[in-house]
Amino acid sequence: MIEDSLRCGRKYMSKHEQHVEKVRKVVHSNRPLRMWEVPDEAGISKKSCHEILNKNLGMWHVAAKSVCVSAD
Fold first, then answer.
1. From the CA atom positions of the chain, what is the Rg in Å?
2. Is the pLDDT of residue 1 over 90?
3. Taking Cα atoms as reference points, which of 31, 28, 30 lies closest to residue 53?
4. CA 41 to CA 32: how far, in whole Å?
5. Cα–Cα distance measured from residue 16 to residue 48, given in angstroms and rounded to the nearest whole number
6. What is the C-alpha separation between 5 and 22, in angstroms, rounded?
7. CA distance to 60, 66, 67, per residue, from 63 (Å)
8. What is the pLDDT of residues 14-49, one digit of tens each?
9. Pure H helices in the chain
10. CA torsion angle for 48, 51, 52, 53 (degrees, to 10)?
């Protein structure tokens, strides 16, 4: 039987879920945001923010100045 050994460090998913929630709150705030402002407001990298918006929240931008809109 193969067993995984315990590892040091943070749990990936718990940190990721916190970032998803931060981005969700920033996007759903009642003020217009530019795409480059979202990662700054959430306090995460642009790449992580882009992945969260696309993969987790299903959002895409229409233009650089637009607010994120749902892919529906």
1. 15
2. no
3. 28
4. 12
5. 9
6. 32
7. 9, 5, 8
8. 578 899 999 999 988 877 788 888 899 999 999 998
9. 12-27, 37-42, 46-51
10. 120
